[in-house]
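Posting this for the archive.
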Amino acid sequence: MDKLKRVLSGRDAEEPSGLAEVIDSTSLGWGTRVKGFVACFAIGCLCSILGSCLLWIPRKGLILFAVFYTLGNIASIGSTLFLMGPMKQLKRMFEPTRLIATVVMLLCLILTLCSAFWWRKAGLALLFCILQFFAMAW
């Protein structure tokens, strides 16, 4: 379990320095991190499922689906912040091998909400939801 904690926190091969010990003493405990991860991930899944159920509502269903699906993806991404920490998560998201997928996914998140709220184009919102899925899977 300690090995898993070191790998997820990014301290696999390096010895803890004085600064790392200070950061560790002020950060969340492992149990709290896991609980936060599970709660955030469950909220993300619930939002995605709720969005899928709302898809079948006449006239506004597609917009509601786009909004809840996007909120579900944001919560799911936020859940990994509990395991790795915000800075480690951002560093991994913007590594050169993941940079294109990250930019496409973040852009699609924003464009989905724009197409749902400002442009009011349901087809565009659905297209951006599909692109979100592919970018997250990539």
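The radius of gyration is 18 Å. Residues 95-137 form one domain.
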